[in-house]
Amino acid sequence: MTPKFHSLKIKNIRKETSTCVSISFEIPNELKEDFRFQSGQYLTLRSTINKEDVRRSYSLCSAPSDNEWRVAIKQVEKGIFSTYAVNELQEGQFLDVMNPMGNFKLVTDVKHAKSYVLFAAGSGVTPIFSILKSILREEPNSHVTMFYGNQGFAEVIFREELENLKNEYLNRLCLIHLFSRENLGNAIQKGRIDEQKCLDLHKAFLSNERIDDVFICGPEQMILDVKAAMLTKGVSEKSIHFELFHSGLKKTTQTAPSKESDISTKVTVILDDDSIEFPLDSNGMTILDAAYKAGSDVPYACKGGVCCTCKAKVLKGTVRMDLNYALTPEEVEAGYILTCQAHPTSEEVLVSFDD
Ligand SMILES: Cc1cc2nc3c(=O)[nH]c(=O)nc-3n(C[C@H](O)[C@H](O)[C@H](O)COP(=O)(O)OP(=O)(O)OC[C@H]3O[C@@H](n4cnc5c(N)ncnc54)[C@H](O)[C@@H]3O)c2cc1C
Ligand code: FES
Questions:
Q1: Which of 86, 106, 255, 338 has the highest local Cβ count within 10 Å?
Q2: Is 331 part of a structural domain of the chain?
Q3: How much distance in Å is there from the Cα of 326 to the middle of ligand 2?
Q4: What distance in Å separates the CA atoms of residue 240 and residue 235, rounded to the nearest whole number?
Q5: Choice among 60-64, 164-168, 206-210 with the minimum mean pLDDT
Q6: Domain of residue 158, residue span
Q7: 58/60 Cα distance (integer angstroms)
Q8: 85 and 157, same structural domain?
């Protein structure tokens, strides 16, 4: 199914912290099927801000069992969409919302008796909160240890709900807050979640535990550090799942084109059963940008290789990608690409958003 924007009414807006709001949407019955999601997935929102089309992805913090579609948006300094969302959006207003997407997702099974470890920092708690609720409600024999880093108490998103879950699932949830700027009275809960802290947390809370799955969401460096520590502690790479909201790495195309000689390609893009054709240099703009310029309403959000809104399949020819933080190795193997990162490397390329 090609992802599409739908105009949805904002049902409720809740102030979560001084810099974060959560927003729920009314999903009409005829769209309920299209908006089915798994914990961990995200919605892409679109608005015109200062006459510009601005699209950003936001993870669902509600679980499917909540029967609610709610995202939480934390204001980023000088951030265009997050500032608009926190300060301007109103209940009853309509917003363009794309159907749920993403590979960072939990598959629950009532028969599982797993030991999960969740790491979240700041707004990274949004998909983790959804994942946590689904595990606790849908896998009665699974156990969760969750580490949640913030500057201090005031920044903790979903504080009350997390406390309620802790009380409700006393024997199955171990929740450990970490603060970088406040003291909780012990050294282990003080500081940022970096590699050493993660090893210390493992020693203090997990040394006697089998770890089945790790879910991580937070800043890029935290994800890399937690992953390294978990690998050191013997967790297999395929059991470590992470979602990156933003990467500090910039695209290299403009400054460092591919070393291969430039070729001119005939690119054909299929979207909604329509096809469009255009010439493109192998060291020029991306397939997404070129398709957009040629008049195709191609789906995209981050343009940074971190979501997978621009995913499409190569049906003919070859391409290279600058970055890929979003596709699984299986998807790449099957021919899927992030078109916002893709450049043609053969004389003819056929790409489909419909497959
Ligand atoms: C799959 C996915 C899920 C996401 N889920 C959430 C979510 O649940 N809640 C949420 O609040 N955000 C989430 N994000 C991030 C969100 O999409 C935006 O990137 C973020 O809100 C900033 O957008 P902006 O327009 O306000 O900032 P921009 O105007 O795009 O950027 C302003 C400045 O902030 C920097 N910046 C952008 N994003 C971040 C960031 N996340 N952290 C630090 N610096 C940044 C930019 O480099 C730039 O310098 C998610 C992103 C992805 C890809
Ligand atoms: S638009 Fe996000 S990866 Fe391409």
A1: 338
A2: yes
A3: 8
A4: 7
A5: 206-210
A6: 115-244
A7: 7
A8: no
